[in-house]
Design brief:
The protein is mainly beta. 5% of the residues lie in helices and 51% in strands. The chain is built from two helices and 14 strands; from the N terminus they run βββαββββββββββαβ.
């Protein structure tokens, strides 16, 4: 043990805290019928939003993310969009809301392992866009559903599209870590 002075011991203590942080973001798609003209792989992205001290974004692919997959389904993904290198585990769930803002369609919550994707501003007046490469193993910049909902199924459910608009909700939960000096 180190001495704090002649015959005295030094002392210190640290408190480590793990806290659950939860939040959600709504992505409203106005002009739903026009989004069907986008090519498979083209996406619409939300503005960045913060949950648990981390920046996130929703990527919405109206005709699927992968051109070789089913373009009759909508794809949705959650992306970690921080400017710091890190790996992060998070819980996420996507749902569609009805006219009254109530959940009317949802997939079960899932856990994902994310790697950061730097956010790059192309100009002072544009929205931020994300660029990056896939990580190794199960870690990737985004997690989500290649076939969130079939477009025919969505359009058949009249309560999910109103005035050519639909609303996607993404719930996110992370464990926030912190520490402080006690003595």
């Amino acid at each position: 043990m180190s001495a704090g002075g002649p015959g005295r011991l030094s002392r210190s203590a640290t408190r480590v805290m793990a806290m659950e942080a939860n939040g959600f973001h709504l992505l409203r798609i106005d002009g739903y019928s026009q989004t069907k003209t986008l090519l498979p792989g083209q996406k619409l992205s939300s503005n960045p939003f913060i949950v648990g001290g981390h920046s996130w974004r929703i990527d919405y692919y109206p005709n699927g993310r992968d051109a070789s997959a089913n373009d009759n389904a909508i794809s949705v993904y959650l992306q970690l969009a921080d400017n710091r290198q890190q790996h992060l585990h998070a819980r996420y769930k996507f749902s569609l809301l009805d006219h009254g803002g109530n959940t009317a369609y949802e997939l079960p919550a899932e856990n994902g392992s994310f790697v950061c994707v730097p956010v790059v501003n192309h100009s002072a007046h544009s929205n931020a866009s994300a660029m990056g490469t896939l990580g190794s193993g199960e870690e990737k910049p985004e997690c989500g559903h290649e076939q969130f909902i079939d477009k025919v199924d969505l359009e058949r459910r009249e309560h999910l599209i109103r005035d050519d608009s639909s609303v996607v909700r993404c719930d996110v939960g992370v464990t926030q870590m912190g520490n402080s000096c006690l003595a």
